[in-house]
Write the structure tokens for this entry.
Amino acid sequence: MTTIDLTGRVALVTGGAQGLGAGMAEALAAAGARVMVADVQDASGTAAALGEGHSSVVLDVADDAAWEKAIAATVEQLGGLDILVNNAGIEITSLLSDVSADDVQKMLNVNILGTTLGIKNGFRAMRPDGPAGKGGVIINIASVAATIAFPGIGVYSATKSAVDRLTRVAAMESGALGFGVRVNCVYPGLVPTAMGAGLANDVAEIGLFESPDAAVAAVVAQTPGGRLGTVEDMADAVVFLASDAAKFITGAGLPVDGGMGM
């Protein structure tokens, strides 16, 4: 998927057990990085599939203490931390007129709090006085939903807009404080993973589209690239931002959406 060489670097990918996260972990490993696959569920199978030199850890991204343990395990087992991918996220479809406070809180906890704690703990590990101490790269996974108005995902869109803002402020703080950590985000378009398929089903179920296929067709119709995204599209963008090819890129948001959010 890429010819970029990340040999000697250590990456931690949240939400890495399946979907986009698993694809990102695979691409980083293929580029030579040692990868810690982190997820709230058991990710040992995903890590094992990457081959020797990789590992997994259970991580609830909304738990600060769990982050400390995951970072410590990464440094101890894999020898450092150079790349952090804040990929973990959830989407719960609802019309704003029907939204559940509990569902809103769940998305805030994972998508905003989880990303914030990832940045916090990534900075503390990578900055000069941290246990990794060599600087590095943080890549936050936002969404095309942060840049468009698509019905049924108002709260999810708001949380991903917050990821964009967090990214830019984090990049400024890292530069001002001399942390040596680049911080960027990616805006994935719709990808037919379990989450993407679930969204298509959900927006049809609440009456916004005649069928899941009609929902997908509406997305494709808004996409100049003429198709849905793939896991590989998103993973390649992460590998690029993690690499020295992007060494002067920080505080940026990279759309990987076929032009849907332009």
User: Anything to note?
Assistant: The mean pLDDT is 96. The beta strands are 10-14, 34-39, 55-58, 83-86, 136-141, 181-188, 253-256.
